[in-house]
Amino acid sequence: QVPPGRCSLFDPAFSAQEAAALGQLGLRLLPDNEEGKHGVGGAATLFYMVHCGKALYNNLLWRNWSAGALSRMVIVGNSFRGMEERVLSRILERDYCYIAKVLKGTEEVALPAHPRYLDTFNDTSVHWFPLEKLKELSPEVWDFVEEPTYQECDDLEIIRKEEGASRHSPAAAES
């Protein structure tokens, strides 16, 4: 069990009332919009990112782009395999290259669909990155570590630091 004080949360859409309620529960609110670029540090970390845009997942992977860091994280969110199936490979590799590069190092299990919410949570999976699988990736995979910019991205689903609030960013719980 993770103590509430070790759970960090962020959503650019949190109202002042929601933030106050979460604070009263003892949860730690991250003060800044990191655009998904939250590092795991030395702790095992769970990222709950249901219904987030691909750029947030890509940013999270970029920020933690090493076998050691990735192997300490679990993501509950949109299926990476689903992204691979629905996005043209050239677009996935150009705009979301960290998702594309880590697919072979990812274990993914789909959460069962709820019969009442088939169109809402039908693409949610648990992802983890076993160290042994990450070590099997070619060394070139780890060489490219440029920060994503999304210059050519037409379907960007992210709230930038400069923008207001209305889309989801990750919540993280460190253990």
From TrEMBL:
Q: Which domain of life is it from?
A: Eukaryota
Q: Provide the SRR1-like domain boundaries.
A: 6-128
Report one GO cellular component. cytoplasm
InterPro entries the UniProt entry points to: SRR1-like, SRR1L
Q: Which Pfam family would be a valid example here?
A: SRR1
The text of the family note is: Belongs to the SRR1 family.
Query: Per its UniProt record, what PANTHER family does this chain match?
Result: SRR1-LIKE PROTEIN
Tell me what this protein is called.
SRR1L protein
Q: Species name for this entry? A: Podilymbus podiceps
Tell me the name of the encoding gene. Srrd
